[in-house]
Amino acid sequence: MRSRTAEWFECKIRYEKTLEDGMQKKVTEVYTVDALSFTEAEQRIMEEMSSYISGEFDVADIKKAAYKEIFFSDTDAADRWYKAKLQFITIDEKSGKEKRSAVTYLVNAGTLNGAVKNIGEVMDGTMIDYVIASVAETQLMDVFEYKKNVSADKPEFEQQ
Question: With a threshold of 0.85, does the pTM exceed it?
Answer without folding.
Answer: no
